[in-house]
Write a structure and sequence with these properties.
single chain; alpha+beta; Heat Shock Protein 90; 2 domains; five-stranded mixed beta sheet; 5 helices; elongated; binds adenosine-5'-triphosphate; binds magnesium ion
Amino acid sequence: MINDRELVSAIVYTFIAFILLTVSLLVFIYYSRKKIIQKEIEKKDLEIKYQKEMLNAAILTQEKERKRIARDLHDDISSKINIISLNSHFLTVPNLSEQEIKNITSNIVDVSAKVLESTRRISHDLLPPIFEEFGIHVAIEELCSNYTIPGDLMVNYSNPFKQEIFDEIDRKTHLHLFRIIQELVNNSIKHGKATKIDIYLEKKKKNRLLKYKDNGVGFDMQKENAKKGLGMKNIESRVEFLDGKFKFDSAVNQGVQVTLSF
Ligand SMILES: Nc1ncnc2c1ncn2[C@@H]1O[C@H](COP(=O)(O)OP(=O)(O)OP(=O)(O)O)[C@@H](O)[C@H]1O
Ligand SMILES: [Mg+2]
């Protein structure tokens, strides 16, 4: 028979054990929650850092672009307009011979034509006009023919259904894709010394796919000197804008292969 004392002490021990269990459970929950929260904070910090880097890259590119436009305007436009202005003043000098007038006028005509060509080039660089009229399909075809040098560099573009891959509503995103392709091509030429570049584009229902490859020297993606420059960072932020998945592969002497689905 259990006596009263034993019963009381059994109850007390059970109670103490219960309290201990509850306390340790609470402590465990507290610390594991703390750990989870800490992990979340670290993840958020990383995200913020990445976004800051992207923003930084975007700002730097904008600055670089502004400098380039300023330089183009200064070197290509201002200097030529100066020449035109100077020549126009010469024309007002009294007693010029017919030959002198002819020379000055032809100089003005020549330089004006160059100014026109420069303004056309600068504005085309800013926004290829072909986009608005014909869409990205034709814009890429034009880019390929601009870069192709027979015998030295072949830039192929294939789009199996010859289709425009953007609808009217998402037309504003097509410039991102075009700039991505432009940077990839520039890198293939500048770093890869490629002689053959293949661009493939298709659209299946709502999904679009870009496949890109070059036959250049490639590079070791693990190496320190293969660090992302502004170009690759810009590609990443454009991919993010397109809400796409980007895969970049390369190795020494293996060229570069890229897929982008969005
Ligand atoms: N197609 C390629 N072939 C060989 N190396 C490449 C290729 N694309 C990129 N790289 C390597 O990746 C690096 C980063 O490229 P990224 O475009 O970011 O910078 P960059 O071209 O050096 O400078 P920026 O584009 O800002 O003018 C390059 O310096 C180069 O080493
Ligand atoms: Mg680059």
